[in-house]
Design brief:
Number of helices: 11
Shape: globular
Structural class: alpha/beta
Largest sheet: 4 strands, mixed
Strand content: 5-15%
CATH architecture: Alpha-Beta Complex
Helix content: 25-40%
Distance between the termini: 113 Å
Order of helices and strands: HHHEHEHEEHEHHHEHEEEH
Length: 357
């Protein structure tokens, strides 16, 4: 029997998207395994330092936060202190870098060193360029990256609170940014805050898409849509509430898991938490003035050409009144934002005449 010749033509190789995906992931796994193998073979120390996708660094940062929050949750409450204790106000600055308005704050703080503390949360590794005599010198706390609109911004706020709570003298805690200014002198602000029976966290029920529309039903049954509140990020609170917020292991995990970027946790966590647990301890308003009249996702910004005596006085004495210790007052705002670096010189010129420092 003779051989039958075989003809083999070209067989076209066609791969669908699923096949390509398998090949790509197979290649990634191979390369990763190869790198790990080389590291282990050359030096075990290299393997210890290897951090795939930064997961180890993120886990270490999370554990560091947990240790900090635990320490802060164990600090004494106000009622545990002796009656002759002199309370301090903790000024907590959440910033992306430098503090261009720091000369104004230096003047504000001058002469009151025993009545305040300063804490600065800036981007990791950044050091403020200030003199050793500055109130801001060496006041940076261990920080992590904080992104606008994400839970990392609220993490940074809690980090500031926790560090400030470790000083048992701190009784009031105010959150500020690099664009904030004081509109009254230190004695006035100190008396206003330490004399208040309420904390100042803006909290209101917003029925639209920017309020209740951000609520996730996945938060049920611990959070209800009728509990959901919105408010300004820039808060002021007393020691009792600060300790409770740092100790919260029920509501904050829900916010982290279900309040995604379009939800903006910094606008909802504190107002909602206080509304659920401590509504009677909150004045439901902020003491930081900001101008949203121009619309958009960010408030109005003011530079040097905008600064005048009339402008600052308009912030200090609002046309509407507010409640302070159950009494009506026209002094509703102690701080204001947002001010650019160009506003510094005009503000310094007006400070002694208008703001009394």
């Amino acid at each position: 029997m003779g051989r039958i010749p075989l003809r083999m033509g070209r067989i076209p190789l066609r791969m669908g998207p699923s096949v390509l995906k398998i090949l790509v992931w197979g290649w990634i796994v191979f390369v990763t395994g190869f790198i790990l193998g080389v590291l282990v073979a050359t030096s075990p120390q290299n393997f210890d330092n290897f951090d795939l996708f930064g997961l180890r660094a993120k886990e270490e940062a999370r554990l560091e936060d947990e240790r900090l929050f635990f320490r802060a949750s164990m600090v004494p409450k106000t009622e545990d202190f002796p009656s002759n204790r002199v309370p301090k106000v903790a000024f907590m600055f959440l910033t992306r870098g430098p503090l261009p308005l720091s000369p104004l704050w230096e003047r504000f703080f001058n002469g009151h060193e025993k009545l305040y503390s300063v804490y600065v949360h800036t981007r990791p590794g950044y050091e403020l360029n200030v003199s050793k005599s500055s109130a801001f010198y060496g006041r940076e706390i261990p920080s992590q990256d904080a992104q606008w609109g994400s839970i990392t911004l609220t993490d940074a706020e809690k980090r500031l609170l926790a560090n400030a709570l470790l000083d048992s003298s701190n009784e009031r805690f105010v959150l500020l940014s690099e664009s904030c200014i004081p509109v009254y002198d230190f004695p006035t602000i100190y008396k206003y805050l330490t004399g208040s029976v309420h904390s100042f966290v803006q909290s209101y029920d917003s029925l639209g898409s920017q309020g209740r529309g951000r609520f996730s039903r996945s938060m049920l049954p611990h959070m209800k849509i009728t509990d959901w509140r919105k408010g300004s990020q820039w808060f002021e609170m007393n020691r009792f509430l600060a300790i409770n917020i740092i100790s919260d292991t029920k509501y904050y995990p829900l916010m982290r898991r279900f309040c995604k970027p379009t939800c903006y946790p910094d606008e909802h966590y504190l107002p909602t938490y206080l509304n659920i647990l401590f509504p009677n301890l909150n004045a439901e308003r902020t003491v930081t003035w900001v101008d949203w009249s121009r619309g958009g996702g960010h408030p109005a910004t003011y530079g040097g050409k905008d600064i005048s005596e009339e402008f600052i006085q308009g912030i200090r004495k609002s046309s509407t009144t507010c409640s302070y210790n159950s009494q009506q007052t026209s002094v509703c705002y102690l701080f204001a934002r947002k001010f650019t670096p160009s506003a510094l010189e005009p503000l310094l010129k007006l400070a002694s005449k208008v703001m009394n420092f």
